[in-house]
């Protein structure tokens, strides 16, 4: 292939750029994401049904189950965090294959487990590691294949996963009655092997990129001229003089003047720092990790997970029957699924409204619906609030990858998702025990729920403030670039 073709131009001077396919093989990539999400997360709500016989057999208490969930969250967090570093030493498909093997070992290992240690190792460490990497990679490859249709495809993937999650309890109940506990675990382990099909479908996006012509005009050429020095790596250590400031240098030779107008090369980095930066993208620590686009989704996901685990016990303490509790959980799932379908239908307008705006709105619904549930004694009203909680859960779960993709550059998406997963794991380990302790000390579920609601409230207040500040900075930056462009145009003339 000639150099001209590599640069995206032909001999006639027409320029091209490579863009994601937004379709084609991307639809099979979406199928692979559905397979991955379904096999790794769809049976999470059936934990008690699947392992009830084993927990009774080895006499596992509630503290042991809580420990298992903590180990699982930590494994997910660290596996997701180091996914980007692992991609530096192996291809995406190879990493996906290894994580699928690890997850399959975890699911099939539960069939032969006989001790609590084996339970923690298989259902906690192995399944957590496999899920952490596969979730990150599945979100990454969908993000790479789609730009304009990203919301539509991600909503469809999450909708299909939600349907599978609703069918999973019915399937597990039938399997337990037909094959027993061990047979059910073996069957679910066999289902997890479908992850290898998902891996086969994860072809690199570079294989399917589209070449589209770009319209070249005066503004485009001027922008290229402004950015040409930034794109040349071989001149990274060469001082750059701003053309627009040449007139200011006449008659000046002071050190302060030279330092003002020349870019001073950065100092050489130490070996340890190079190793750290090769493993993690340190540039995301200030720009992403310490922002609401990272802390917000991690906080809300943590609060959402803790709440759904505790709320059945709260309903039982209110004297609800098992049928009413089951109805509440069903309506929660219905609200979740209905919102996923809605996101699929209105995907074209979601970017116009703003992904972060929709996310914050969903968090507000989460807070208000939980307050309404605590303030009501009517069963019907509480069931309505549970449906709204399902709507909020969908916003929190489905929009999280879209929030990340909207906040960082495509090449940094995997690292950003890893940071978010790590933050989620740390918060789960820290906030979960605190909320549980508040519940035990006060002997009140309401106090624990108000603590979780306060987390939603903090996000609802701080995130809009951050968005407002960023928009003002962006507006000032655009005004500055327009001014510099006009000045450079005058100098060139």
Automatic annotation (TrEMBL):
Its main location: membrane. It is a multi-pass membrane protein. Residues 25-472 form the Major facilitator superfamily (MFS) profile domain. SUPFAM superfamilies: MFS general substrate transporter (SSF103473). The keyword ATP-binding does not apply. The keyword Transmembrane helix applies. This is Major facilitator superfamily (MFS) profile domain-containing protein. It comes from Spodoptera littoralis.
């Amino acid at each position: 292939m000639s150099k001209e073709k590599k640069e995206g131009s032909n001999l006639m001077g027409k320029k091209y750029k490579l863009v994601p396919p937004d379709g084609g093989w991307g639809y099979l990539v979406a199928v692979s994401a559905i397979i991955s999400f379904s096999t790794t997360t769809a049976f999470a709500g059936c934990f008690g049904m699947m392992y009830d016989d084993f927990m009774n057999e080895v006499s596992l208490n509630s503290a042991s189950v809580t420990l298992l969930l903590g180990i699982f969250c930590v494994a997910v967090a660290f596996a997701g965090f180091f996914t980007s570093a692992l991609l530096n030493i192996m291809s995406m498909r190879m990493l996906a294959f290894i994580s699928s093997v690890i997850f399959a070992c975890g699911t099939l290992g539960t069939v032969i487990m006989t001790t609590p240690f084996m339970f923690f190792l298989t259902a906690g460490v192995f399944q957590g590691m496999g899920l952490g990497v596969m979730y990150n990679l599945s979100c990454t490859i969908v993000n790479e294949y789609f730009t304009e249709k990203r919301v539509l495809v991600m909503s469809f993937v999450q909708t299909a996963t939600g349907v599978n999650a609703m069918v999973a309890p019915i399937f597990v109940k039938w399997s337990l009655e037909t094959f027993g506990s061990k047979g059910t675990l073996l069957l679910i382990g066999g289902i997890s092997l479908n992850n290898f099909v998902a891996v086969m479908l994860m072809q690199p996006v570079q294989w399917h990129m589209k070449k589209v012509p770009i319209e070249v005009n005066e503004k485009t050429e001027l922008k290229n001229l402004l950015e040409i020095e930034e794109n040349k790596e071989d001149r990274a250590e060469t001082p750059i003089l701003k053309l627009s400031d040449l007139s200011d240098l006449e008659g000046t030779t002071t050190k302060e003047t030279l330092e003002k107008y020349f870019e001073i090369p950065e100092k050489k980095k130490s070996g340890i720092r190079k190793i750290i930066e090769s493993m993690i993208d340190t540039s995301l620590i200030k720009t992403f990790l310490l922002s609401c686009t990272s802390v917000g989704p991690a906080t809300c996901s943590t609060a959402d997970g803790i709440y759904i685990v505790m709320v059945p016990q709260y309903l039982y303490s209110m004297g609800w029957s098992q049928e009413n509790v089951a109805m509440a959980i069903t309506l929660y799932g219905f609200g979740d699924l209905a919102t996923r379908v809605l996101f699929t239908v209105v995907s074209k307008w979601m970017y116009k409204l703003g992904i972060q705006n929709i996310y914050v709105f969903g968090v507000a619904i989460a807070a208000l619906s939980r307050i309404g549930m605590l303030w009501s004694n009517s069963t019907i009203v509480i069931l309505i609030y549970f449906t709204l909680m399902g709507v909020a859960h969908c916003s929190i779960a489905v929009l999280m990858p879209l929030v990340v993709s909207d906040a960082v550059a495509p090449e940094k998406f995997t690292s950003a998702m890893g940071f978010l997963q790590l933050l989620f794991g740390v918060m789960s380990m820290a906030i979960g025990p605190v909320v549980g302790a508040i519940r035990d000390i006060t002997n009140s579920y309401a106090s624990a729920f108000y603590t979780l609601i306060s987390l939603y409230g903090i996000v609802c207040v701080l995130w809009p403030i951050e968005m407002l500040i960023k928009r003002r900075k962006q507006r000032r930056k655009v005004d500055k670039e327009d001014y510099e462009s006009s000045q450079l145009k005058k100098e060139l003339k």
